[in-house]
Amino acid sequence: MSPAVLLLLLTSVGGASAFGRLFNNLFNRTASITSAFSSTCVDGNLENCKMWAEDGECEKNPAYMRESCKRSCGMCGGFKKPNVRIGCNDEEGYECEQRAAKGECHSNKGEMLIRCMKSCDACRWKSLLQDALGCEDKHNSCVMWKDNGECTRNPGYMMDNCPVACEKCASKRASCDRPPNTPPTVLPGDINRTMTRIWHEFPQYDPKPLSWPGGPHGPNAPWVMSLRNFVSDEEAEAFTSTCKQHFDRSLAGDQLSPVRTSYQCWCSGNECEAHRLTQIVAERIANVTRSQVRYMEPFQILKYEPGQFYKVHHDQNSGLFTPQGARVYTFFMYLNDVDEGQEEPGGGTHFADLGVVMPARKGHAVLWPSVMDAEPDRDEPMTNHEGLPPKASVKYASNVWIHNYDYRTPANANCLLTHRNTH
Ligand SMILES: *[C@@H]1O[C@H](CO)[C@@H](O)[C@H](O)[C@H]1NC(C)=O
Ligand SMILES: *[C@@H]1O[C@H](CO)[C@@H](O)[C@H](O)[C@H]1NC(C)=O
Ligand SMILES: *[C@@H]1O[C@H](CO)[C@@H](O)[C@H](O)[C@H]1NC(C)=O
């Protein structure tokens, strides 16, 4: 066992017990206070509440979570359990702050992100990091199996169960390294430059900003750009027809998030991805946003039935340390006309902080940033948005998230971070 791995194991054991004590303390207090206020305090969704709470949903969607995940959110009675991330700390004696200041959160991710989560500002992604970077043998017999040649005879099983004995920890982490030759999509000022260029140089899409810096929402308002006739009828048809059977599959109770009731289909590894027209749309988006197709997540095709919605949320969900970096842009396309003939059609995209709505019109698109123009390392606070429910008809849309760095290469190399980061 290498010293690094040994330290890693010690760290997690020490951390767990200190956290365990703290948690018990809080829990005992919670329990006594709870019983004074209310007799039932349980999670409504036993399977997912804990995971959602760890992902920060208690803060992001307090209304739903208070109702359905009381216990996991620590909202029992009058006492609020501190965020689960309280267990996220720097390892003592490792000089985390100094190392972070020297840039080691990037240059030495495998060590730093586990041992210095706090200084690396990675607490939000604690469980993801533990999954992706942690590396432990799960059986006492691993070393014996290795000596018997199982690492080469049964590589799949051994990779999962005996990565330390088989010396696979480094390659597991390497799948999450940022590939070489991945210049960032945006440096400070580039969002403004790209949006300004779209406004002036793509008249064929009749670009109109719904919000811009110096516009009605103030000097620091983000760009939100609407485009017309971006997707042709044939292209819209290519998305919806290749996804038809995949929507049906998600009907089978594949409830993805407490705040979203639409159905979805990933345009990935199927006839949707293989379709020439969906590839042409991807290249067009890369051209307009000055990005690259490999920096994009696969298209996500959405289907909303009347009354279905996606409550106010923000799209940026990736740690700066991930190979793909932040989601910098969302490019959202409407694939059909929603609520035709209705006096007030539904199905638009409502930008809650800006008070503007992009209507759902076939072929139109809207582009917005999820990070700040002047500081792309920080989330843009003004681009929270929601998918308004259609009233009378079905809504189809296609959505793509563009990262600051290559997404597809690490995703195809099975980097765990990338997969868990997607929702
Ligand atoms: C919490 O309560 C349990 C049983 O009620 C007790 O055994 C345990 O010692 C308590 N823990 C702390 C930290 O007070
Ligand atoms: C955005 O870019 C335009 C055109 O280059 C420039 O005139 C403007 O000052 C920039 N605005 C901000 C807020 O950077
Ligand atoms: C990229 O945009 C330019 C206009 O700026 C256009 O001439 C060119 O055809 C576009 N390429 C693609 C692949 O859409």
Description:
The protein has 423 residues and is of the alpha+beta class. It folds into four domains: 42-76, no CATH class; 84-123; 135-177, no CATH class; 190-413, q2cbj1_9rhob like domain (Jelly Rolls, Sandwich). The chain is built from 18 helices and eleven strands. It has a seven-stranded antiparallel sheet, covered by helices on one side. Strand 7 and strand 8 (356-358) form a beta hairpin. It is globular and about 70 Å long. Residues 24-25, 28 line the site of one 2-acetamido-2-deoxy-beta-D-glucopyranose (NAG).
CATH superfamily of the largest domain: q2cbj1_9rhob like domain
What is the CA-based Rg, rounded? 23 Å
Low-confidence stretches: 1-39, 78-86, 249-256
Distance between the termini: 36 Å
Fraction of residues in helices? Answer: 25-40%
- Strands of the largest sheet, in order across it? 1-2-9-6-11-4-3
Return the CATH architecture of the largest domain.
Sandwich
Q: What's the pLDDT, averaged over the residues?
A: 80
Number of domains: 4
How would you concisely characterize the structure shown here?
With 423 residues, the protein is an alpha+beta fold. The protein has 18 helices and 11 strands.
Which SSEs are present, and which pair or pack?
Elements: H1 3-37, H2 49-54, H3 57-60, H4 62-68, H5 96-101, H6 104-107, H7 109-115, H8 126-133, H9 142-147, H10 150-153, H11 155-161, H12 169-174, H13 190-201, E1 208-211, E2 224-227, H14 233-250, E3 263-266, H15 271-274, H16 276-289, E4 300-304, E5 310-313, E6 327-334, E7 349-351, E8 356-358, E9 365-369, E10 385-387, E11 395-403, H17 408-412, H18 416-420
Antiparallel strand pairs: 1-2, 2-9, 3-4, 4-11, 5-10, 6-9, 6-11, 7-8, 7-10
Organism: Chrysochromulina tobinii
Subcellular location: Endomembrane system; Membrane
Membrane topology: Single-pass membrane protein
